[in-house]
Write a structure and sequence with these properties.
Helix content of chain A: 25-40%
Radius of gyration of chain B: 21 Å
Number of strands of chain B: 9
Largest sheet of chain A: 6 strands, mixed
Number of helices of chain A: 23
Largest sheet of chain B: 5 strands, mixed
Oligomer: heterodimer
Shape of chain A: globular
Number of helices of chain B: 7
Number of strands of chain A: 16
Structural class of chain B: alpha+beta
Distance between the termini of chain B: 64 Å
Number of domains of chain A: 5
CATH topology of the largest domain in chain B: Alpha-Beta Plaits
CATH superfamily of the largest domain in chain A: NADH-ubiquinone oxidoreductase 51kDa subunit
Largest interface: A-B, 47 and 48 residues
Strand content of chain B: 5-15%
CATH class of the largest domain in chain A: Alpha Beta
Structural class of chain A: alpha/beta
Strand content of chain A: 5-15%
Strand order of the largest sheet of chain B: 2-1-5-3-4
CATH topology of the largest domain in chain A: Rossmann fold
Helix content of chain B: 25-40%
Shape of chain B: globular
Order of helices and strands of chain B: EEHEEEHHEHEEHEHH
CATH class of the largest domain in chain B: Alpha Beta
Chain lengths: 570, 230
């Protein structure tokens, strides 16, 4: 093994050394910026500085897809081959790129000038097919014209209302454009319990996928006595088909920051983290800049506006692990560990980050908070339905004329959303819509009248999830779509509990057979047994939903899973 | 404080704070376990001990969930049996269970078919024979985590081993796959003691199984000592 010059390492990781183990992910990122990968001597040096056991450092590198312990280029091209990009030719783009450079996927050139990988969903689904080239997004790749856009991904924002997205679509809103943190100023004049009461009256449910009432988290953490409480913003948006948080954070970072500040004020927290998925590197510089602006203007930091209230925020960057969107896995990741979800209870509200009471909310959830406080909950509730008040973001992708982010009041119908997006291109008919992402379920053309609310969807047996509306036209082979879902979950299972660790692998194998027309007798029953076992017995939400879309497909289209049956398409 | 709960229709009393597993076992109700061990922190990994608790949407791991007053529990419901059988079938299709007689017995009890998943990928691995004390055969590892736990805070604080990979491809490993003598391992043997499947095995037991006689093994060991002195 060649010796690596360790001289540049120490200055690069210096600021993380006092953090100890929680400095591990930032230190590994910094090291990889220098070397492209983490050679053994570099890993050992990081372990020594941070006082983390060697085997544990190795375990962490091995867990995250974007950390490498084998020679890898500083320039990695990650081509999305997940479900939406799969429809739009992602595989072909990957293959042509590999051919051009004489590489196989997940290989590096001899001179370490390039690594090419296939990637799970990059959160750029409205720009499919797409890739991540180094730290830049390559969007709307058109292989025929050899054209694409490279850099900051454009934000395509539509819909009848623009409350959450008021400042989205025109680049990053500076503090000057955002204006004063009016909602925070108002909150500073309220008692903490009044803030919580407003959030409760607004009927705000979490927008990350689990739809948990926000005020219950806030009330519980507010009631805890602790030397330190935390606000964590979950920006590990990784659900295939979801890209709303990317746009909110990139275009309007101050809104999330203000939401976190109000949460902190309400529950008595002094420290916050924004955990951004590793696939969104282009968000980090504007987000850092926004934090700097907020500090300079006195909205963030010590003794905010002379009120005696102090709160500051640090950014943490993930490294390729869908599971880290699970709240306790996310804490583990911030703590410098493998992203294994914890056993619950205890819940984050009592034993969260670093074992302290923690509010963890999704980006979109937090962006609703300044709106609720500045408008007042009564005004906020005029929008939407009684049980699902307020605005909602929907991520439309796949076979629609205008894919993008759509803001609409809760209660908009699925059909209306489709219409807003210009319907299905090429005079084709609708076949199915995947709601809620990979962990979601399929809706059919006869369900277009369903209102997009928590209560209506629940009654229809459909999930809202993270707001994914992924459209498949009549020509799409649903077996191929399911095959990609199977690959996704097998790739992303953390491996902790047995049902998910082995079930996602077995599910993938069967779905591969189904997609290639080699279905065995009883494969449908195998899929159901594996699926129900994962749903019923897995430790966390990933395993519990890893078969959700597959089981819904079995119900809708059993003929796809029968031996010797061709797909209903082609 | 004593609490009263109903397990499989039988009213039992238990101490407050007891797990469902302990409460059941104290009352003669058997719940199978794989990853659970008295000496290690329960992580609820294998989910073989799941039970159905009235009012709870999902099956609950009895090794972790605390017994509560008036709880109604079923340890052999249809859902429980399906989960246990499927988990066992997936294990059999993944790893070598030949040294895990307790799990093979469990498979019989639940009618689990070892050939349920044709064409299934297995976790295969070469036997790692790199130290005088024990061998590591990860083809037999079912990832109960006990070895990693006793090597760390559950016992020895040695931190010689951790995980490699993720998901189905997870394996136990050392720093950059270094041989055991180059790690912080102190050859305490605790990991071998808690391994339920023979994935970690005393070197002598391994050699005896390979057909060597005790005399041959002792010569081998002497030889090794001489070599290490040189």
């Amino acid at each position: 093994m060649p010796d690596f010059d360790l001289a540049p390492l120490t200055p690069a990781i210096e600021k993380y050394i006092p953090l100890g183990r929680p400095g591990l992910l930032p230190a590994l990122h910094a090291a990889q910026k220098i070397y492209g990968w983490i050679p053994e001597s570099v890993a050992a040096e990081i372990a020594r500085h941070l006082r983390v056991p060697l085997a544990d450092v190795h375990g962490v590198i091995e867990f995250y897809s974007m950390f490498y312990n084998e020679p890898t280029s500083r320039r990695v091209i990650r081509v999305c081959t997940d479900i939406v990009c799969g429809l739009k030719g992602g595989d072909g783009i990957l293959n042509r790129l590999c051919e051009k450079h004489g590489l196989q996927p997940h290989q590096t050139t001899g001179d370490l000038s390039l690594t090419i990988e296939s990637s799970p969903c990059l959160g750029l689904c409205e720009h499919a097919p797409n890739a991540l080239v180094g730290d830049e997004a390559e969007t709307d790749i058109d292989p025929k014209k050899d054209s694409h856009m490279l850099g900051r991904p454009p934000s395509w924002v539509y819909g009848p209302i623009r409350l959450l997205t008021a400042r989205c679509g025109n680049g990053t809103a500076s503090l000057e454009q955002y204006g004063r943190y009016e909602a925070l100023a108002k909150a500073l004049s309220m008692r903490p319990e009044e803030i919580v009461r407003e959030v409760k009256a607004s009927g705000l449910f979490g927008r990350g996928g689990a739809a948990f009432p926000t005020q219950i988290k806030w009330e519980s953490v507010a009631a805890e006595k602790a030397d330190q409480k935390y606000i964590v913003c979950n920006a590990d948006e990784s659900e295939p088909g979801t890209f709303k948080d990317r746009i909110l954070l990139l275009d309007d970072p101050h809104c999330t920051i203000e939401g976190m500040l109000i949460a902190a004020l309400a529950v008595g927290a002094s420290k916050g983290y924004i955990y951004v998925r590793g696939e969104y590197p282009y968000i980090i510089p504007p987000l850092e800049n926004a934090l700097r602006e907020a500090r300079e203007a006195g909205w963030l930091g010590g003794n905010i506006l002379g009120s005696g209230f102090s709160f500051d925020i640090e950014i943490r960057v993930g490294a390729g692990a869908y599971i880290c969107g699970e709240e306790t896995a996310l804490f583990e990741s911030i703590e410098g560990k493998r992203g294994f979800p914890r056993v619950k209870p205890p819940f984050p509200t009592t034993h969260g980050l670093f074992g302290r009471p923690t509010v963890i909310n999704n980006v979109e959830t937090l962006c609703n908070v300044p709106l609720i406080i500045s408008q007042g909950s009564a005004e906020y509730c005029k929008l939407g339905t009684a049980k699902s008040p307020g605005p909602k973001l929907f991520c439309l992708s796949g076979d629609v004329e205008r894919p993008g982010l759509y803001e609409a009041p809760f209660g908009v119908t699925l059909g209306e959303l489709l219409e807003m997006a210009g319907g299905i291109p090429g005079n084709k008919q609708l076949q199915a819509i995947l709601l809620g992402g990979a962990a979601g379920a399929f809706a059919t053309p006869d369900q277009l009248d369903v209102k997009m609310t928590f209560e209506d969807l629940r009654a229809a047996g459909l999930p809202l999830g993270s707001g994914v509306v992924m459209v498949f036209d009549e020509t799409r082979d649903m077996r191929e779509a399911l095959n990609r879902l199977g690959h996704f979950f097998a790739h992303e299972s953390c491996g902790k509990c047995y049902p998910c660790q082995m079930g996602t692998q077995r599910q993938k194998e069967i779905l591969e057979r189904v997609a290639s027309g080699k279905t065995l007798p009883d494969d449908m029953i195998r899929l159901q047994d594996v699926g129900w076992t994962m749903t019923d017995a897995s430790l966390c939400g990933l395993g519990q939903t890893a078969a959700s879309a597959v089981l819904s497909a079995i119900k809708l289209w059993p003929e796809l899973f029968v031996e010797g049956q061709k797909s209903k398409v082609g | 404080m004593a609490i009263t709960l109903v397990i499989d229709g039988k009213e039992i009393t238990a101490d407050d704070g007891m797990t469902l597993l302990d409460a059941a076992r104290e009352n003669g109700i058997d719940i199978p376990t794989i990853c659970f061990h008295e000496a290690t922190t329960a992580n609820g990994l294998c989910r073989i001990c799941v039970v159905e608790v009235e009012g709870m949407r999902l099956l609950q791991p009895s090794c972790i969930v605390k017994a509560a007053d008036q709880m109604k529990v079923q340890t052999r419901s249809e859902r429980v049996e399906r989960a246990r059988k499927t988990i066992l079938e997936m294990l059999a299709s993944t790893m070598d269970l030949s040294d895990a007689p307790a799990i093979l017995t469990m498979m019989d009890e639940y009618g689990a078919d070892a050939a349920r998943f044709p064409g299934a990928a297995r976790r295969e691995s070469e036997v790692k024979d790199d130290n005088p004390m024990y061998i590591r055969d990860y083809s037999k590892c079912l990832l109960c985590w006990r070895c990693v736990q006793v090597c760390a805070e559950d016992a020895q604080y040695t931190y010689a081993i951790n995980f490699e990979g993720r998901g189905f491809k997870t394996q136990i490993g050392t720093f950059f796959d270094r041989p055991i003598p180059e790690t912080t391992c102190v050859l305490c043997g605790q990991c071998v003691g808690v391994c339920p499947t023979g994935a970690l095995k005393a070197k002598r037991e391994f050699l005896l199984e390979q057909g060597m006689s005790p005399q041959e093994i002792s010569v081998l060991n002497t030889g090794r000592k001489r070599r290490s002195k040189a």
